[in-house]
Structures are given as C-alpha cells and as structure tokens.
Design goal:
With 489 residues, the chain is an alpha/beta fold. The protein has 14 helices and 19 strands. Strand 9, helix 9 (279-293) and strand 10 (299-309) form a beta-alpha-beta unit. Helix 9 crosses helix 14.
Length: 489
C-alpha cells in the first residue's frame, strides 16, 4: 500500500469521505467550530461519550451515510518518536479498515498541537515508515493507494514539506530495499553498482576492486571472499557538506552479501536469512544517502566491505593465516567468524586514509549479542565515553536502543595465537560479542574514538516493530542521522 500526500486550500466538505481529526486526552476536538462539521457537534459528542471504545487511541464513527470521522487521541508536546508511533498505529488502523481517502485540517492539527509546528510531519513520517513493504518479486501486488489530503483554510504555505523527513524516509527505505534483496540478486558486483548510482546526489564514490585491494594488502577482507565467483570490494562514499576542512565523521559497515559460514558451514535451518548479513553496510549506505539528500552541513565518509562467504575449491580453510591491511596477521580458526575480518581491514583503512573525528561501525556480527540482548537493544562497544553517551542518547530519541557492553584488555589473551599475531575466535568460549569487539579494537591503530554496534538482533524482524512492518528494519539509519543532527551539525 502506497501513501500519496497532497495539500490544498479550502475544499468543499461535501466531497470529503473520511475526516481525520485529532483530539486531546478527553476527546475534546479542537478547531471543530471552524469546520462545517460544527453543526454536528452535539451528535459527535454524544457518539464519543457513548462509545465503549473511548479508552482506545483511535475511534471511528459515521456522521452520515457517506461520511466518517476518524478520531485520534493525542497528547500535546509528546516526543517526536511518540508522534511517529502514533502515525504508525494509525496506518495499521486504516489498512485494517480499508480506508483510502483521508482528509486532515490545518485548524484542527495546529489547535490540537499548537506547540509542535511539525507534529503532522512526524505523524505522517511514522505512517510512511510503517507502510514499507518489499513486494518487488510478487506477481500480484496490492495496488491500493492511500490518499491523504491536508486542507489549509487560507493558503498553502510555500514550504510545508520538511526535507529532513523526506530524506530520512528515502535513506531508510533504500536500506530496507538493499537488505530485502535475495542473495542471487544483490551479490557484491551488483551492490557496488547500486552504490555507484548515488553519485548523482552528490556523493563522491570510489570502488576498490580485488586487484586494487590486493595491492593495498587487504588480505583479511579478500580471504573471506575468495571462495565466491563474485568479486570482493571496498567502497568509500564521501559527503562534503562543510566547506571547512574539518575531519570527517566516519561510518563503516559489514557487507557480507550472503554468508554460508564457509567451511565452518552454518546449519541449513534459517540459512536463507543470511542475505541480511550485509545490513550493517546497508545502514551506512542509507545514512550517506540521507545526509546527501538533506545536504547535511558536515563532512562524512561511509566505508563498506562487500564480499560473499561461500564454499568452493578456492574458499578459505580453517587454519589459514592471512595478513591484514594493518600488517597484523590473523589465524582463521573459524571461517564463519568472517565479518570481523572484513571490518578489520575496513577500519584500519578508514582511520589511515580519512583521519576521521570518530569511527562508528555497524555489523550483524555475532549470534551471542542476540543471546544477551534479544531484539530490544543493539550492543554498543566503544573506546570512548563521550561518543558512547551521544550514541546512547540518540538511540533513545529515535527508539533505536543501544546497551553498552564491556571491553577490557584481559579479553585480548583469549584471541592470542601461537601461529600468528591473533586468531579470529575466542578459543575457550563465552563472551562471544565482547571478544569479537575486542578483536576489532586491535585494528584502531591511532586511538581514534571508535564505537562498534553489533546489530545482529536488530537488523531484521520476523514480526515487525513500532515503526516497521516486518522484515528489514534499517536499524542504524535513524540513530546515526540523529547523532549527526544533535551533536555535529
């Protein structure tokens, strides 16, 4: 179901099919006296008072045989995320009731939410987020359009669409599209091509192919992808929105387009879900698209490592030793602990080449984080308290929550190898997410402020959440966009 939003000046209320009105906690409808509906005030109040559904946030009733009122209970000055959730709940209501033509009125909106000038934009943004569906490969599609018209009594303001919401929606949905694609479509070759198309919105993009990566010495990343017939790539996306030569903010993503586990083969059950093992990279790409579209006044760089972890005669074996871009050697004891190998090279490269203000990486890195935090929080690991605090606060504001987990030098000994500088798994078991993050920290060479977000439990949802309809969640895009907005612009 798609949502089409239009704006108009004073239309005849005779032509309105479904009035959408907001009320306060007591179901008092503000602005009603300025609408032609005011002649029905007594009937409306009587219906509301007698309605047994009064405790619900949304109720609907007929004014006459042709017109319906949908009444949404709201609180004045509630937070942006709550307004978005209200919109998402409303989308569920109208979808389940097959309502398609809806009319809002500026007088009702502004008198109900007089202290929040962008309430309706937040509300509609929540509706649009919730309406996402990936039906690209269905031969029979739901072609129902939801038409929303916002009526202004006097004149339509020149600027009524907030570019921030439009850009954020596009970036979020782009991430969802990427994560939702099957592995036979979105392999590393195709993924790199799709990123290149973002040049047209102002991003500077460089794709490093296998030959270039080999020359650079990215043995850790290349080792993961060597079993696939597809290429392996590192892609950088630069946004220069600040004319000064300030250090960029850096975002790094794991892009394992399909993960069989390699010779440390995953169980067949649920392996089809391993198409979303590139969700960290997709969040970085969606974020960079958002920043470019809304012309964010910062300098930022996104870096993603794109590989496919397959089984073949040329695939990496348990026991192989590879040399990373940093110069450190890694004994690969488990080929299914591959994401950290991709990130190891990407992190050091990002730090060395771009000398960023900070680095945040995102990855569906460990099943252990799901054991720890389920699907409520992503794990946060960091070497910097200030950056951690900012991330935690940004996550709370957009309902993409984080929980800080420990890092400690004592975990390092669990990954020391007899044959190389380190090994890629913890040899005694336990603390799987922490030791993976501790491994990554070894590749932050110059003590750059760094945070690792393990989003394995958050990137994909079988059942949906408050602001997503199930499937790819685009976790991280809204969170990191909020981080940039609140602390760095």
């Amino acid at each position: 179901m798609s949502i089409k939003i239009s704006y108009s000046k004073g239309i005849s209320e005779k032509n309105i099919k479904n009035y959408v009105l907001f009320s306060n906690d007591d179901f008092k409808i503000n602005g009603l006296a300025k609408l032609s509906l005011s002649k029905n005030t007594n009937q409306i109040n009587k219906t509301i008072n007698s309605n047994k559904s009064k405790k619900k946030d949304i109720i609907s009733f007929n004014v006459n045989s042709d017109q319906k009122i949908i009444l949404i209970k709201t609180k004045n000055n509630q937070g942006s995320t709550e307004n978005e959730k209200k919109g998402a709940n409303f989308f569920n209501f109208i979808k389940s009731n097959s309502l398609t033509n809806l009319t809002f009125f500026d007088v009702n909106i502004f008198e109900t939410q007089n202290k929040n000038k962008i309430f309706i934009e937040e509300f509609l943004h929540g509706m649009q987020l919730k309406s996402y569906e990936f039906n690209k490969y269905k031969t029979k599609k739901d072609m129902l359009d939801m038409n929303i018209n916002i009526v202004f009594r006097k004149k339509v303001p020149k600027k009524i669409k907030n570019d921030r919401f439009t850009s954020l929606l596009e970036g979020t949905n782009f991430t969802k599209d990427l994560v939702s694609e099957p592995g036979n479509i979105l392999h590393p070759d195709e993924y790199a091509k799709r990123i290149l198309k973002l040049k047209k919105i102002g991003l500077k993009i460089k794709v490093y192919n296998e030959k270039e990566l080999k020359k650079l010495g990215m043995g850790a990343l290349l080792g993961v992808g060597q079993g696939s017939v597809r290429g392996s790539y590192l892609v950088t996306m630069e946004w220069n929105g600040n004319k000064s030569k300030s250090k960029p903010l850096a975002f790094v993503g794991k892009g394992v387009c399909f993960d069989t586990g390699g010779y440390s083969l995953k169980p067949a059950r649920f392996m089809e879900d391993m198409t979303y093992d590139m969700a960290g990279s997709a969040a970085v790409v969606g974020l960079m698209k958002t920043l470019a579209l809304r012309k964010a006044k910062i300098n930022a760089v996104g870096v993603v490592g794109l590989v496919e972890n397959m089984v073949s005669g040329n695939a990496q074996r348990p026991g192989d030793i590879v040399k990373s871009y940093s110069g450190k050697t890694i004994e690969v004891l488990n080929t299914d602990a591959e994401g950290r190998l991709v990130l190891a090279d990407a992190l050091t490269f990002t730090e060395k080449k771009f000398k960023p203000k900070f680095i945040v990486d995102l990855a569906t890195l460990t099943g252990a984080i799901i054991v720890s935090l389920g699907s409520e929080y992503a794990g946060l690991f960091s070497n910097d308290d200030k950056l951690s605090k900012q991330l935690l606060e940004a996550g709370e504001r957009v309902d993409e929550k984080l929980w800080r987990m420990p890092l400690h030098k004592n975990f390092d000994k669990l990954m020391n190898s007899k044959n190389a500088d380190m090994q890629n798994i913890n040899y005694v078991g336990g603390a799987g997410s922490t030791t993976a993050a501790q491994f990554l920290q070894r590749f932050i060479i110059n003590k750059t402020p760094w945070a690792h977000l393990d989003i394995a439990g958050m990137a994909f949802s079988k059942y949906g959440g408050a602001l997503n309809s199930g499937g790819a969640t685009a976790y991280g895009v809204r969170l990191l966009n909020k981080l940039v907005e609140d602390y760095y612009e």
